[in-house]
Amino acid sequence: MTKEGKKSKPTLQIEDAPGAVPVAERSPSGARRMTLNMGPQHPSTHGVLRVVLELDGETITSAKPEIGFLHTGIEKQFEVKKYQQGIPLTDRVDYLSNLTNNLGYALAVEKLLGLEIPPMAQWMRVMLCELSRISSHLTWLGTHALDIGAMSVYFYCFREREEILKIFEMFSGQRMMTSYIRIGGLALEPPRGWHKVISKAVEQLAKGIDEYFNLLSANPIWCNRTKGIGVFPVDLMLDLGITGPMIRAAGVKMDARKDFPHTSYDKFDFDVPTRTSNDVYGRFEVRMEEMRQSVRIVRQALAGMPSGAWQADAPHILLPDREKMKTQMESLIYHFKIVTEGFRVAENSVYQVVESPRGELGFYVVADGTPNPHRVFMRTPSFGNLQALGAMLQGQLIADSIAIMGSMDFVLGDVDR
Amino acid sequence: MLPEIAAENPTALAVQTEYPEAIVDAKVASDGLVLYISPLLLTPVCRLLKEQGFDRLTAVTAVDWWPRSPRFEVVYFLHSIKNNVRTRVVVRLKEAESVESLCGIWRSANWYEREVFDLFGIEFRNHPNLERIMMPADWEGHPLRKDYPIHGFKYSYQDE
Predict the structure, then answer these.
(1) Could you tell me the CATH number of the domain that includes residue B47?
(2) How far apart are CA A380 and CA A139, in angstroms?
(3) A335 at B interface, C-beta within 8 A
(4) Which of A258, A415, B148, B156 has the smallest set of CB atoms within 10 Å of its CB?
């Protein structure tokens, strides 16, 4: 398509807006129209997403995303698990930023229980969540660049991500499904030598992020394929429920870490980056800047990590120390009670918001006085963002659809749950 | 009637002055105000809340309280960026009762209402495209209902 063809693209319309006439209807060019089925097995959808595209030549006249291929009923499973057993389920929702998911669920239940978390555990949570934000953004950057055609970035990003996954393995024994943040604190005591390992990794990351930014921002093909692509009105974005880096690239300063501070985020000094260009390149810039801010937070956490307990003082909720069980009767009783029955939570409900790398992640937990949650609803950022895909693709070129989808950074496990 | 605990809240007061019959119950949770609204007045109240600055409908979900009556609670999560406030609007519904769709007020309601329809079987009147979203189109039953077994109806592990 030529430059002229790009200029004459129609104004953006919403998929279900009444009276919306696709551009192709107006021109009697029936032969140029076709329906293209993208997915469910398409490499650039990063999961199983099906998009039904109606095309007029190379212009998309309508796009209908179809989801549900990865629906595994996680919300239903929560209802038959004990509260603490829900943590591994949250890992499997957004598998690229599992610690943020752990944190959201743990915070919601802790609010219901009225648990006080010691400062060391809170700072450790912040540090690990920011590391997982960097790892998630690195995965995004690598795959997004690969989709657009820059292959080498992919290898660099995954090399760096590997270092972060090694840190997670060191802490929890697991690379991806860490389940490290538990209700009441952390799963295990932080390993010996963690400070040195993270300090080294963070210095390398700080260098790496700048390098990858320069690698892409000075690349004319990257700039041509991202600048001015995927622009979408801000009011529609808010109306359609877009959150996270997407909305920040449109100039709206919305970040749950600042707006609704949790887990001592108010004790850290960091900025919420915004851009006003509102295109694919702007979202790239915002995410790169977010990684730099995360590095800043991790450095602060390394410098000022408080000492003390890594779990709350709540013997009726947390499993006792193995040694104590052999000598103290009470610990043995608590252990028996927690393992056989779990702990009960009084009838109440809470909606806890945390900032996931993809946007607003909310956990709505309803307790009914039994050891199982009555209902756990996950407001996942990918679901909210993906809803706008149909409207965003309308009127765009088919080649740009890959760039736009990549800039949304959705995880299909997060969409379908 | 507005309970004492929410009497100081500006959002609750605004709704109370405009639609005195709308508020069934209210409470202040740790994450903000929770308003229980009569299903008939949901649309006007939500329109008013949008004028009050709640520019985002974050999510819609439901809770099944079977075998209690009224059985369902439909929960709307609202967020005001300007005032940095969150509010929950809750509508209590009996079995087979339907509720007005909010797609005309916030477009983000579209998929969330489809999800609630799919997994709970609650109908939303005047929804532009009320189809199943998670489950296959020919699926029978609504999985997140409390009387739907965890392993589904097709298989049973009881006799093995």
Answers:
(1) 3.30.460.80
(2) 19
(3) no
(4) B156
